[in-house]
Amino acid sequence: MAIRIETPEGTDALTEFVLFHDRVYASRPARWSAFVPLELPILAGGSPFVEGRRVRPFVAREGDEIVARTAAVVDSRYNRHWRERLGHLVMFEALPGTREATRLLLDAACEWLEHQGTEAARAGFGVLEFPFVIDAYDVLPPPFVRHNPAYYHALLKDAGFETEKGLVDYKIRVRPQLVARWESALEAARRAGYTLVPLRDVPASRRVAEFTELWSDTFKTHWGFTPFSEGEIALLAELQGPVGMLDLSLIAYEGTRPVGVLWVMPEISGIAALAPGHALAAAEKLNFLGIGVREAARGRGVNMAMAGHAYLELVRRGATYLSYTIVLDDNWPSRRTAAKLGAEVCASYVVYRRNFRR
Fold first, then answer.
1. 346 and 169 in contact (C-beta within 8 Å)?
2. Which of 196, 205, 222, 269 lies 20 to 30 angstroms, CA to CA, from 16?
3. Which domain does 232 fall in, by range?
4. Among the three residues 167, 202, 219, which one is the final residue of a domain in this structure?
5. 357 lies in a domain?
């Protein structure tokens, strides 16, 4: 059957694009479903996440059915920040046995990116995109983290992509000695003059602006980072707030100056799609966590205190396993923090890149 590469347009076609994710993962005993309220407006051009970006979706069809998809993104905010000419491929998904369709799909997306003036395409990092897992295929990951099938790596490499960066995920089994360690870190930060304020208690007039500025400053040299806009953070807070983001995320202050930021979502495994009769293990019921500290405040225990604050609250709610979430392989300061918190590596991930000219 002939393969056609198309650019979907209109609400129905773009909704089909988004929901294709659920077709790919339908056989999984546990999976995260497509997040239509966030993804559809990005593709339709009605989201803060398209400001400063050009987004073009592509699908590969055999007959009337989509068999692979991706969205190509030219991100002027990323390229301005890093002084690069890089394109991104996001939302990539494909059915098994689609090597030729995937190659044609990614060729078309990369050709469009090259015509937009970019020199390479990155897949697996950028614009809310998480990397591709390479080992932990059978367990439900933390919220928002990619849960791709093993065959994706062969599809991407056959389409001309190379491994660009490695990352690791960390998990903690809650134990009394770790709870004591987190309590100690929290008390040490308080004695040193730091105040940890949950986002819900930061005045609404300052909350989004402070969070956005802190995140941008603390991650400005982090590989692959793209600055968030206040509109993006406001949207994420609106979507995630009702399920606990504002309660668990926080800002750390030294006096009145914000010096640290913690972004946490509690485990939301109750909304995961499960096969009939399938039950999640306790180790699959995990939070999401992101952490940043200003350079001037690093090395003073602020990171340990912020993470400890969230972990203690999650344990109070009944958590027996916790996530430190994904960290770059070579981000040793963050990896050392994970170890101090009691975390151990539980999964490995990669980011891919395809260079257009050699």
1. yes
2. 269
3. 170-351
4. 167
5. no
Tell me, yes or no, whether 356 lies in a domain: no
Distance CA 122, CA 226 (A): 13
Residues 192 and 260: their CA atoms lie apart, in Å, by 14
* 152 Rama sector, left if φ>0, alpha if ψ -120 to 50, beta otherwise: alpha
Q: Which of 168, 70, 45, 81 is nearest to 122 (CA)?
A: 70
Q: Do 139 and 234 share a structural domain? A: no
Q: Distance between CA 163 and CA 132 in Å, rounded?
A: 10
Count of the separate structural domains present in the chain: 2
DSSP annotation string for 65-116? EEEEEEEEEEEHHHHHHHT--EEEEEEEEE-TT-HHHHHHHHHHHHHHHHHT
Q: Are residues 61 and 175 in the same domain?
A: no
Say if strands 120-123 and 86-94 run parallel, antiparallel, or are unpaired. Answer: parallel
pTM comes to: 0.95
Rounded-to-integer distance, Cα 248 and Cα 238, Å: 14
Position of tokens 């960290």? 327
Asked whether residue 319 falls in the same domain as residue 176, the answer is yes
Distance, first Cα to last Cα, the chain: 34
Contacts of 26 (CB under 8 A, 6+ apart): none
Domain boundary among 143, 167, 191: 167
Q: Of 316, 223, 222, which Cα lies nearest the Cα of 261?
A: 222
Q: What is the pLDDT of residues 70-107, one digit of tens each?
A: 999 999 999 999 999 999 999 999 999 999 999 999 99
Same domain for 58 and 198, yes or no, is no
- Summarised one tens digit per residue, pLDDT across range 108-164 is 999 999 999 999 999 999 888 999 999 999 999 999 899 999 999 999 999 999 999
Cβ pair 288, 264 in contact under 8 A: yes
CATH code of the domain in which 79 resides = 3.40.630.30
